[in-house]
Amino acid sequence: MQLRTQLASTTGAREYMQWLGPWGWVFVYRTPKCNGVAKAYIVPDPDRPRVCLPAAEHAIAAAGEKAISKAAREVVASSPAVDGVRWAVWDVQTKEAAQDAIKFAAACCSK
Fold first, then answer.
1. Which pairs from 92-100 meet CB under 8 Å and 24+ separation?
2. Sequence-distant (≥ 6) Cβ neighbours of residue 29 within 8 angstroms
3. Is it the case that residue 1 has pLDDT exceeding 70?
């Protein structure tokens, strides 16, 4: 619940529920300016909860290396890029991983 609240406030987006195929029901965080790509997605899988934070590569670069932790940079580096957007997915089974995702959202996804 805390992750959901923090993502909504960090991204400035409203929370919605949406069915997204392989992920099933997810929490989606959208703003009126999203143009089809939400600010964040939470996959509430009880066995493997995840958060997906799509971020434009230019926003990641603009955030700078100091604003993004080493662990977050590793997640982003291994994430697929589609049309200039990195689709970074965190397993958020620990508080540290969830906080890392929130910090990444604050640095890159709230723009």
1. 92/3, 92/49, 92/50, 92/51, 93/48, 93/49, 97/71, 98/2, 98/3, 98/51, 100/69, 100/71, 100/72, 100/75
2. 7, 8, 11, 13, 14, 15, 16, 38, 39, 40, 41, 42
3. no
Query: 14-19 and 40-43 as β-strands: parallel, antiparallel, unpaired?
Result: unpaired
Q: Kindly report the number of other CB atoms within 10 A of residue 19's CB atom.
A: 8
pLDDT at site 111: 56
For residue range 36-91, what is the model confidence (pLDDT) as tens digits?
778 899 999 989 999 999 988 888 888 877 778 888 888 988 999 999 999 999 99
Q: Report the predicted TM-score, pTM, of the whole model to 2 decimal places.
A: 0.86
